[in-house]
Amino acid sequence: MSQPITARYDFVYLFDCKDGNPNGDPDAANSPRVDPQDMHGLVSDVCLKRKIRNFVQIAKPGGTEGYDIFIQQSAVLNDRIQKAHDDLGHKIDAKKGTTRDQVSSARTKMCARYYDVRTFGAVMSTGVNAGQVRGPVQISFSRSIDPILPLDVSITRMAVAEAKDAESPNQTMGRKNLIPYGLYRCHGFISANLANETSFTTDDLELFWQALAMMFDHDRSASRGTMAPQALLVFEHATPLGSAPAHKLFERVKIAAKLGVTVARDFADYDLTFDGKPIEVTKPEAPIAVTENVKLHRKL
Hints:
The chain is an alpha+beta fold. It has 7 helices and 16 strands.
């Protein structure tokens, strides 16, 4: 049975990309995102949230009650906000707009209907006002452990688009952006207090962990190469407020290339440690370590 979340969570998520483009930058001809100062690769939080949303739509098909997705392709957001007011029978004054009670109840309705609203939050004041939601789940930009090497390779197409070009011996040329390999580290935060406000439950949390474990398997494309989750380390605090600062916990998780590895090309080329000790896979739900009233679990 689904229950309210009673603990704060912080997590470290590691994923990699081989011979693909994990997150293209549309302002840079779709080349892999990179920090120009140190050439470490970047993947935006929006990129990962899109994959999580897509997974939820697959895992909960047909708009399963409570698991519809607010932000999706071609969705008219203001129409969805208006529907929440209509379902609640709100009569909105054209001059005065929505009342505080109408905004509050529409906000609650949107959280109950849309998984991504009660998870990540949303701005719902773009049309008929349904307020704003601060989501309990927040994700940082992901950064590669080592510098990446963006490549711009040529590709050709043997077919032609129009009949008039059929006799031409010329091939159509194109470009493809990729990196040979990159291991990325993402930090995430889950607030029990905000979860209580949006009714984000333990069932929602389990679905979120499942999405991180499986979303890349349902997001394959030639341009993304082989992307895979490699580790999910979850710090479970003893209280809603938490028992230690997140950044101090993250600092104790180290990932570095093994001795003798000059150019990493696989997750096996790295050592993953907590307080200097290797992190191993343990029994399900068994904590790897308990420190400062914080349990460390490895879910991947």
